[in-house]
Amino acid sequence: MPLAPMAGAEQAYEPAQARPTQQADGPAYSLPAPKLQRAEALDRDENWLWAIGTLWAVISLLLVLGLRWAAGFSRLAARIAKPPWVQGLIFIPLVVILLRLLHLPLALAGHHIGLAYGLSIERWPAWSWDWTKGLLVSLVISTLVGSLLFAIVRHAPRRWWLWFWLLSLPLMLAGVFIQPLIIDPLFNHFEPLSKSHPELVTRLEQVVKRSGESIPPDHMFLMKASEKTTQLNAYVTGFGSSKRVVVWDTSLKKSSPDEVLFIFGHELGHYVLGDVVNGLMIGAAAALLGLWIAFHLTRRLLCRYGERWQIAGEDDWSTLVVLMLVFTVLTIVSAPIANAVSRYVEHRADVYGQEVIHGIVVNPQATAVQSFQRLGEESLDTPYPNPGMVFWTYDHPPIANRAEFARNYDPWKPGGHPRFFAK
Ligand SMILES: [Zn+2]
Q1: Rounded to two decimals, what is the model's pTM?
Q2: CB 3.0–4.6 Å: which of 16, 88, 174, 226 could bond 147 by disulfide?
Q3: CA 349 / ligand 1 centre spacing (Å)
């Protein structure tokens, strides 16, 4: 859902330069030669990291099962405590810590790449502390959800997938509600946008007014991303009273005010079109299907490999690791569908963003193209992504496609039809 930048009038930004990218016959998004080389190298590195990470996510779980580490943890927990829920308090954290450690080399490689290409400026000690906090949050959530899931599996061995799904709905809602209030502030600093950028809030309110929506200024936040990254972003998050628009301070520093209005317009699109709630509903439908498939696959795997993995039955704690394996594979296999939906939603927000700033900025098309150019340059996005990777992993359309669409999209010209606004 994240997107891009906004700017305060007092901030230094480069005036939109006459770039080859803005010529009507060239590509709408392009990089100067040295940057292009680095972007292509980054693309290759990230693709490798993704491929290895995806394989390793499956292999590491197979190892935890095949080497009977899961079985060992389960026996250890049974030796220490009798009540199953106390066993869970021992078993789940052991598994979570083991898996996090198995994935640590990839996390280190990922941050190394971010530093090497200048995308991240977070030093290793701060990164390590973030990693540790991530582990602690994961321990708490995994232990709660895993204990709940296991209790349901024990009590309703044939229908646990349905019961767990029903219980997961309020949990998902609570998670989306709580995330911006409790989880996000653990990792970044936030403040009301009006505190440092009151004049920007005034301009944004113009855009909000045109949308017909009302976003109270205290639902607009500035995130101090510049402590950690050089990249630009903005996003909509939360649910009900925690719903909010968040803009990274890096976006404000590096973009022109018009570009900021466009990026905000894109985020406003998510807000107005209810994409957080839509995402929750699609997620809930996918979870029901996923749980049903997981129920059947887990049974088959236990029948076939239960003995080899030393898992006594579905009420053995190690079954949780089998479930993790099944969910991991399902997530990887279904990624193209999830990402196709996401790309559609993001494209729709691009259309909305361009339409909502019509009449407020002088040239919405040029503004949008320029803001994609800046976004892509700051993130070193290659103009030529691998189509297979786009299909499998891109949750936004490639930046070149977004820029190309923006350049050609003018629903106010004769014969055009705006999608979200009256002409
Ligand atoms: Zn978005």
Answers
A1: 0.88
A2: 88
A3: 6
